[in-house]
Amino acid sequence: MNEGEIMQRTTVHETWSSRTVFLLAAIGSAVGLGNIQRFPQMVGENGGGAFVLIYLICVFVIGVPLLMAELMIGRRGRQSAITTMRLVAVEEGHSPRWTYLGWLGVLIAFFVLTFYSVIAGWGLDYMVKSLVGQFAGLDAARSNALFNGLLADPLRLAFWHAVFIGLSVFVVARGVHKGLEAAVNILMPMLFIILLGLVGYAMVKGDFMAGVNFLFAPDFSKITGKVIMLAVGQSFFTLTLGAGAMMTYGAYLPQNVSIPRAVSIIALSDTAVALLAGLALFPIVFAFGLDPNSGSGLAFVTLPVAFGQMTGGTIVGALFFMLLVIAALTSIIATLEPLVAWGEEHRGFKRSTTAIVAGIIAWVLGTGTVFSFNIWKGFYPLGWVPVLRAKPSLA
Ligand code: PFF
To answer: Which CATH number fits domain 13-373: 3.30.70.100, 3.30.700.30, 1.10.4160.10, 1.10.3720.10?
Structure first.
């Protein structure tokens, strides 16, 4: 098959309406809990500016070329990652078994969906908690109790998990134009406005310089092999690499979009959001004399104490959790799309049917994550694998 024939390959899929909307969708899939919750916490714990430097090297030296490759292979195949990997390999005279790599990516995305929506569900719960004034007058102990109370409640967790999966099924079932594009056109501008608003608030009301110092003062003594591996891992997670998602988004890409330029914009925006999230969080943490090294409890235990004490904390808190929820939703869409794209290529699999069935299976599997915080707490079915023996950190 020559280049012309490849470009004319018929596809059942829709194409992005514009370069901008593709960029919004790709940035939306990259920006998620990994940026708002995980990145600031990792920076704080692992050497501040020194970690940021290593992370940037990983993003631009390893992540960017891989993201370009995923998008290029996706655009060339113009099918789901599963079919694309087979087609492109065969066209190049290689084994059709490359399709298994496509499957692996799609399954990884699907498993991310199962636990990611549970954590995103906490964000919805906390958004409501903030609005109804439950943070008022919280101290550290009561904030801890509030969070533990949520984790101990499987029904509540399962409910929010269902709401989140329901939202993503709704968006994905409507298709690329009416679903994905409509969602990112509304959600991404909201995300940027809320984020900038929170950074502005942190500048005025927080201890901004303490936050900047904490994030950027380099402490190279903390850099170990393990920390470098964490930075590599974070760069993969945050750019949504290896999950078939970017390959699928690449399949919907018109030929006239420059992939290297698009990838630079995606990587820079993703990094900017991660850094801005840190600049929104830490100045507030410092202004209230709280502990910035509270790990995964930073967003759900430490910050509510600050929201409970600050002027306008009800709104600022609700906006922060809304930011988390929006970021998570635009990523979750990208975890479901690869499987739905594959379904679309099979006659009889309607887009909405695949989305609903996949959503139900993801919800059921996700109850494993839900129960791991309460009724199955302390039960480690894979505990015999050395690296999985330790208690996993959240999101
Ligand atoms: N990029 C997302 C984040 O940083 O939160 C995580 C992610 C989304 C990973 C979708 C994989 C995926 F398919």
So the answer is: 1.10.4160.10
